[in-house]
């Protein structure tokens, strides 16, 4: 039997394996025999040789049997590996192994592609499942939106029938897609007869384009047939594109008239409210009238506004004026006789002069105003038949009945404010006179210093005015000056003389009047008016600085004492020069400068004080 190279290699491998096994067996046997103490005889050797030969024979038989198997199954192996045994003769084991490895690689590649396609198919299946789920959800949502839209449409239709307004809807081109019953009824038509907006409104294509460009909150609709009514429109968008235009309109202009009336009444109420707020917090006539007239001129957009009050000469004296033009404002003092403004005052009547025919008599001023295309209104400031003055208004537009009612309401508010201020002034005057009478008891005990408290109060007032303090603060400083020596009432007569002054009269005076309800600044001024500016003569460790009112009273008090001991001639005082060394220690440098300014620029007023002349109430307070 001829063997192939492949078979030879297998056989050699088997024989080599068998030979190696025999050698290793003999070697192992030899080692065993060499290490044993037993004696070895010929019988043992024969036995060993027999075993070895039997083993070799067994190996030979096994090799032959394996070769038979290989040759028998060779064709199956070729078929399994995809090799044609008739064309190719495999003589090397490596060649067979390489073919096997190539086939194995091809199988692995096919398996990898299969897995990849399987994964792609799985992902595709997942995506399809998700898409199906999303489609189902979107379809459910769409159906819900459709149902909601249908419900809204039905609700809109029912609601539109309840509105007392004409309602219709057009598409972007102006084709009517809905009208409520009120629209059909008022247009004397039927819904099927209305196809475009031009069947409802008397407008052009260009005019309809305006509705596409913007929403109109209020505009006058001109209907086909001549009717007019106020209405509005609202554009309805779908994805930033206009889809529909909704129109609402009143059935007549009555709603528009009511809206305008309401707005005007609201504006008038706001007008009156603003004026009331201005005048309610004022306490002086000049500021009240000026603030009020400026607000009236601004809110009414009048050419000019002025307020005149009657004075002791029976003239209407100008007190406040405002407006964007003062061209037609009369001079400061206007006589009551022979003038329309005087007629309004005397007769307590509102006088409206829109045209020359409205003139009651010849009046050159009024004629000039009307010829310049202006209108005039005179509103008396009166309350309970008590006339205080007249408010004059020059306007570029006619005064109607509604504007007259508004101006009359404003005049009543101004009049009430004037009466309140005048009453306040009278009460304040009486209050100061009462205090003056009270402190006079302090002065009359010393003939030389008679009127000292009143003169100190007036000088304090002059200093306060130089500081540009408000009227309330000026009154407080005046009050503190009047009461600064009230504590001397508790001492004997000779203590009222300057050289017999008692240090405690300031604190005693404070205790005497602190329950009256005077402010702390006034009380501090009374108590500390003999305190030095640098506190060098202070015995009170709680005082860190001389109070502000006390600084004013101190210099006013010492000036009056200086005048009584030196001279009563206002032109000859040397107070500033004599007191210079005391500036910064006894007196505040600020008030010493103010005192010097008064001596230079207000000599006439000081002269009246020291000549015991009667000071005008307005100047005094």
Give the topology.
Blueprint: H1 5-34, H2 42-81, H3 93-162, E1 166-171, E2 176-179, H4 181-186, H5 205-213, E3 219-222, E4 228-238, E5 241-249, H6 254-280, H7 285-300, E6 304-310, E7 315-322, E8 333-335, H8 340-347, E9 351-353, H9 364-371, E10 375-383, E11 386-395, H10 401-443, H11 452-466, H12 471-483, H13 505-513, H14 520-527, H15 548-566, H16 575-579, H17 589-601, H18 603-610, H19 617-620
Antiparallel strand pairs: 1-2, 1-5, 3-4, 4-5, 6-7, 6-11, 7-8, 9-10, 10-11
Helix pairs in contact: 1-2, 6-7, 6-10, 7-10, 11-12, 11-15, 12-14, 13-14, 14-15
Brief descriptors of the model:
621 residues; alpha+beta; Beta-Lactamase; 4 domains; six-stranded antiparallel beta sheet; five-stranded antiparallel beta sheet; 57% helix; elongated; disordered C terminus
Kindly name the structural category. alpha+beta
CATH class of the largest domain: Mainly Alpha
Annotation, overall tally of beta strands: 11
How much of the residues is beta strand, in percent? 5-15%
- Compute the number of structural domains: 4
Q: If you had to describe this structure to a student in words, what would you say it looks like?
A:
It is a single chain. The protein is α+β, with helices and mostly antiparallel strands. It has four domains: 5-81, no CATH class; 163-252, Beta-Lactamase (2-Layer Sandwich), CATH 3.30.450.20; 282-420, Beta-Lactamase, CATH 3.30.450.40; 444-620, Hypothetical protein af1432 (Orthogonal Bundle). 57% of the residues lie in helices and 12% in strands. The protein is built from 19 helices and eleven strands. It has a six-stranded antiparallel β-sheet, with helices on both faces. Strand 6 and strand 7 form a beta hairpin. The longest helix has 70 residues, at 93-162. The radius of gyration is 61 Å and the shape is elongated. Mean pLDDT is 77; it is low at 613-621.
